[in-house]
Amino acid sequence: MASNEPTPFQRIFSSRDLLRGASLNACLDLAGSTALLVFGLVVLCLMTDILITGGQLTIPQASQAELTALVGEESFTEAGHPAPNSSGDLVYRDAGLVPTVWRFREKYFGPVLATACRRFAPLRNNQKALLTLVMTAALLGWMRSMLESQARILLQRTGLEIATKLRRSIHRQTLRLGPADLEGHSSEHAMQLFTTETDRVSAGVFLWAQRMGRDPVRLGALVALAVAVDPLLAGVCLVPIVACWYLAQREQSRIEEVRQLAQANAGKELRVLAESLEKTRLVRGFAMEAFEQEQFEKYLVRFQQNLSQGLKAKAWSRRTIRTLVAGCLAFVLLFVGSRILPPVEMPLASGVLMLGAFAVAWFPLQYLVRLRQDHEPAEHAARMIQTYVNQIPEVGQAVGAKFLQPLSKLVSFENVSYSTPSRGPVLAGLKLKIPAGRQVAIVATDQVEGMAVAYLLPRFIEPQSGKILIDGEDIAWVTLESLRAEIVFVGGKDPFLTGSVRDNISGGSANYSLQEVTEAAKIAHAHNFIQKLPQGYETVIGEHGEQLDAGQSFRLGLARAILRKPALLVIAEPEHALDEDTKTLIDDAYKRIAVNRTVLYLPQRLSTLKRVDEIALIHKGRLVAIGPRARLVQSAPLYRHWEYIHFNELRHDFETE
Do 220 and 237 fall into the same domain? Predict the structure, then answer.
């Protein structure tokens, strides 16, 4: 049973959206373009009729009064009254569209054509009529191009509006999910969605709206034009045309399945052939050249046969489709030709108009058929975006959450466990106590484990079991605002924002004065390099401004944290190599920051390990050692090994040999 559930793309841009705002105006422009196309085909039909008849009309003398009523008496006054020929019929020469008016006088559009010919004198002269029709066709073509261009602009604007809306949603969702990105995969995924996938959806909106707003109307109008010329002939011609199109589509689908199967089989043989290139030592060592060559030739022949099978099937499919098309065209041309010849004697121009309408209708039909295939990338991108924006953040504020008081006694991790879908368990029943006012370095044999401890404190991530207490208060039951006001995380990889230095430190908040910003920068030893920037604290940094090195960016992050005066500061040091002057400045900044404050470090430098009060070593998600560095170096072999592989000067010698 078919589901009425909308697709991800339809949730972003539905059929109703096509009939609103700019896209509705675009559809109206495209409808106008279709009308002009139909008029253009009619004009070409009239031009064809002039070229065929040469503006000459022969009628019985008894019909002169009827012709005069159609085109007016002045038509004959200008050219003179024709004399009867040998048969007694009247012959009019250089009469422009008058012969056309006479032939179509009984059609429903005959009176319109007769009125135009009667009121516009140039249409009653060959050269002038041809010039008028050519200029009319050119004008219609220009108007069509203007309408098509305007429609494209409107639909592109619609696509851009959808892209803007999606980017807002992705940005808002990234702010919710991004802090929990422990391994950095989510940010890469969000960036891909924000750029590539959103652009695909935007292009898909344009493509879908253009084809659905243009091609059904155009196809219907062209078929209606063919029916208007001759309903019976149009109906007879439509049957083989539709049958040919249907059979051609079925044949293309069938041959595509055959081709994919042949390619899959060829791929298997190719993998076997490629494996033989990796067995040279085995073959040569055991003198298996003859056997290997025999096997290689067997699979090579099978590989070639599979490829040939796909190519042959494709060639036969093309022949079949071309035969169908040729047969269909032959039938249509034969039937139209039989209507043009006596005894029916349909005007040749009418036959040309009908064939032209069917020929032009082939393009919107093909566009509609290929729409699903061409639209698939946009549908896939929309599905990815919808899946992302519908994710529920793992961290939320509890109902009735309390306000957290500043840390004054103890931070406690009680049997905390945390895991990720990609890595599995990261922390497994972690027990850790950190007294207030202490400086503690968190080190782990797996860097992600240490980062998880840092992310848990400000509740960027949520433990699957266990709890974290601050002065006996479970942080899961306090407000996020008060928690993140008292616990601030400074990341070594944190980028600076595009904006002024002052805005980077204050976070764009008007609650901090320039003096407070300056004092925080001085404590972090960022003031001096800021003063050297072109506009000091008002210098714009970021993609469109000044660039900072890793050390400057890190000190800017320290200043941002210091300004907020948190009770607990978590510092993840930058992994980039820093020069000696920068290291000295950062060490001095640490001394200033640590006064009357609890500081946790995720260290990247040995000097940081030497200056902290305690080092907590985590291995396989559990605390395995804690204490001053001097004691751990003596009593904890695992820590000693960790420090060696991270900081010993000779560690790289074994890696490069």
Answer: no
User: What pLDDT is recorded for position 306?
Assistant: 72
- Residue 546 DSSP one-character state: B
Per-residue pLDDT for 657 more than 50? no
What is the chain's length?
657
Judgement on whether residues 547 and 589 belong to the same structural domain of the protein: yes
Indicate the DSSP class of residue 196: I
CB 289 within 8 A of CB 358: no
Residues 491 and 435 placed together within one structural domain of the fold:
yes
Cα–Cα distance for residue pair 66/45, rounded to 1 Å: 24
Residues 105, 129, 30, 236: is their CA dihedral positive or negative? positive
The number of folded domains in the chain is 3
Instruction: Give 612-637 pLDDT, tens digit per residue.
Output: 999 999 999 999 999 999 999 999 99
Q: Where are the alpha helices (DSSP H) in 277-391?
A: 280-285, 289-340, 348-389
Q: Give the CA radius of gyration of the chain.
A: 40
**449 and 643 in contact (C-beta within 8 Å)?**
no
State how far the Cα of 201 lies from the Cα of 191, in Å rounded to an integer. 15
Of 579, 592, 583, which is closest to residue 522 (Cα–Cα)?
A: 592
- Kindly state whether residue 355 falls inside one of the protein's structural domains: no
| pLDDT per position as a tens digit, 441-467 | 999 999 999 999 999 999 999 999 999
Residue 353 located in a structural domain: no
Q: In one letter, which amino acid is 449?
A: E
**How large is the average pLDDT for residues 283-293?**
76
Whether residue 616 is found in the same domain as residue 517 = yes
Question: Token pair for residue 130?
Answer: 């041809």
Q: Is 486 exposed, middle or buried (0-12, 13-18, 19+ CB in 10 A)?
A: buried
- Structural domain containing residue 89: 1-226+362-393
Q: If you average pLDDT over residues 367-377, what whole number do you get? A: 87
Domain final residue pick, 288, 313, 345: 345
Ramachandran class of 596: left when φ > 0, alpha when ψ lies in -120 to 50, beta otherwise: left
Task: Report which secondary-structure segment, H or E, holds 477.
Answer: none
Q: Give the whole-angstrom CA distance, residue 143 versus residue 112.
A: 22
| Preceding amide of 343 cis, omega within 30 | yes
> In whole angstroms, what is the distance from residue 347 CA to residue 352 CA?
9
* pLDDT for residue 237: 84
Q: Is the pLDDT of residue 400 over 90?
A: no
Q: How do strand 614-619 and strand 622-627 relate by DSSP bridges? A: antiparallel
pLDDT of residue 656: 46
- 208-221 pLDDT per residue, tens: 999 999 999 999 99
366 shares its domain with 502: no
In the structure, what pLDDT confidence band is assigned to residue 650 with cuts at 50, 70 and 90? low
**Same-domain status, 278 and 158:** no
Mean of all residue pLDDT scores within the chain: 86
Q: Are 369 and 488 part of one and the same domain?
A: no
- CATH number, residue 573: 3.40.50.300
Q: What is the pLDDT of residue 256?
A: 72
Q: Is residue 356 part of a domain?
A: no
